[in-house]
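Final report, results section. Input specification for complex C-07:
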Amino acid sequence: MWLLHFIPDALIVYVINMAVLSGIAITIAGTFLGFIPFVNKYKAILHLIGVALLVLGVYCKGVFSTDAAMREQVRELQAKIDVAEKKAQEANTQVQTKIVTKIVKIQDKANTAKETLRRRKDTINAECNLSDDAISAYNFSITKKPTAETK
Amino acid sequence: MMRQLLLISVLALTGCATALPVKMSFPQVPEALTKPCDRLLPLDPSKKQLTDLLENTVDNYAKAKECYAKNQAWQEWYATQKQIYEEVK
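Structure output:
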């Protein structure tokens, strides 16, 4: 069928319609115009040609209509896909902006907290030093590596 | 004669070929979501002051929050893309 795509649709429709109309005309002529000597002489052949043209024309009309409907569906689907791809791209940009903004906010907060800790370092550390066991227990919760005590 | 018949058969068979020119590409993931979450950092055993522990905790909290935010963003991305995909059907 793809070979037909190289021919303009209007021309195909015209040829098919002509085939159908000729088929009808020749069939009618072969059936009802038997009183004309020329027609009467070739009645059987005219019948055959008329019916063949009619059948072929109707068949082609059906095929072409189906093909045209399919092409229309493809066009609609492609349009939908184009819109969806554009929407997906926009959604990606939104998610990207949102997550980057969130990460920046989280880092800003952490920096502010660390600044406060550094500023008040002397007060906070006044009477407190961490023992090796405390650090080891703390690190165990992060690394899951066994410490001397948890072994 | 045989050649002509072969040529006609080939031409007739090409009529059966149906190329559907519709293709939907898989949506790209935002770049920020392609990076894995940072691992939590243990405290350097040589740092024994309380502020060192607190700073380390603050850093680790920030990493955990970032990871949580990324997880939420993944879910949001998936839900949005699924909705867009279903609209096409």
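Chain B touches chain A through 50 residues (CB under 8 Å). The mean pLDDT of chain B is 83. This concludes the modelling results for the funded period.
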